[in-house]
């Protein structure tokens, strides 16, 4: 179990996993190296019941990270204040060690999309996203971490690199960053870039969490490799290698293994956490 000398208000520099209710008993009985868990905020916005009871029990042994997927930080319109209020209620109730969201948009008017879509990196986008981040942080009364996206195309109108865009956001808002190494690998492969160069340019001093996960391999209409951020498979060796490269830059960090689709038995996810622990050594 966890090292009792570490407060549950801080994410430890150790493996974490995306929590799934089917793993509750196994996780409590045999956590292996897992010291923290992540939950998706939108799954816990109800008033109570079994999900919250399990979360309270888990928080006795594991630090908690709350990860939002529905704020649409990069959206053209204003943030949904009702959604933000529900998010505040959840964070006030659970007091997580970390809260994060995506650098992406997922709404248009009253339409809600299932995908987290990328943004053009322009000064206008920067101003809008910074205003949204400041609104979230003011409402929640806590710093948020912003996650780099997985990209499948680049916008012709972008006049900032993604790393410069993220660096400027941290300067304007004092937010932290969630560095998803799998997303870096996906974007670099899809856009023909070097993932190591991306990591070298990333403002790693602001990183509060690192994520790894699985992806699907496909090809585009021209036969070029196309990677899809599916979170439905084991982490591939090149992503583990990129994680090692990243940790050499950042030093030890909380590392989360994501597996959200085709979720395996606990023993399989635990083995992925074991591998993360080996990379962290």
UniProtKB/TrEMBL annotation:
Query: Which branch of life, at top level?
Result: Bacteria
InterPro entries, per database record: MbnB/TglH/ChrH, Xyl_isomerase-like_sf
UniProt xrefs under Pfam families:
MbnB_TglH_ChrH
- Descriptive protein name: Uncharacterized protein
